[in-house]
Specification:
Elements: H1 11-32, H2 48-69, H3 91-115, H4 117-132, H5 137-158, H6 166-172
Helix pairs in contact: 1-2, 3-4, 3-6, 4-5
Length: 174
């Protein structure tokens, strides 16, 4: 007999899952030091991003693990299960949105050689904001511009990573 997809895992299964994620975060955090946190002349080394990611995964998962291990008080009423989230979306709408994003991401990756990383990122964020999240076009455009600026700031300036400019960037001399 199968369990309906709308039911979530119980507190014990969730605790096990968050425990595994906390251990994974600890492992990533611990091994990141082998790559070097800082490089030559105090520049960011290849181990900094895994260190931060591992630490975040460890802390967030450990926090969720503690919440799951805490026994609910008898005075707390159970949460109603209406199937609608805080934004008024049903389970079917959330699943449709998820699959739309899963479908759009590979398209954006395939566009990188043509448009370049930042343009593909901007297009991806715009499509997700405008069509998946149904934001007004001007708001979606603003979110995309901020994402592109943040991507350029983090990767192009702070980390000094050469970003792919794509065929369009090559034609324009970027």
């Amino acid at each position: 007999m199968s369990v309906p997809a709308t039911e979530t895992a119980g507190p014990r299964a969730q605790a096990v899952g968050f425990g595994v994620l906390a251990l994974l975060g600890a492992a990533v955090f611990g091994t990141s030091f082998g790559y070097g946190i800082l490089g030559e002349e105090g520049r960011v080394g290849p181990g900094l991003l895994p260190m931060v990611t591992g630490l975040l995964l460890l802390l967030l998962s450990a926090g969720q693990l503690l919440v799951r291990l805490r026994r609910p008080r008898a005075s707390e009423p159970p949460e109603p299960e209406s199937g609608v989230d805080a934004f008024g979306r049903t389970e079917a709408q959330r699943v449709r949105q998820l699959w739309t994003v899963v479908g759009v991401v590979p398209i954006a990756v395939l566009l990188v050689p043509l448009l370049g990383f930042l343009a593909a990122l901007g297009l991806l964020v715009f499509v997700v904001s405008a069509f998946v999240e149904r934001r007004p076009p001007l708001v979606a455009l603003l979110v995309a511009v901020v994402a592109v600026a943040a991507g350029h700031g983090v990767f192009g300036e702070f980390l000094d990573v050469p970003l792919p400019t794509g065929a369009v960037g090559d034609l324009l001399g970027w």
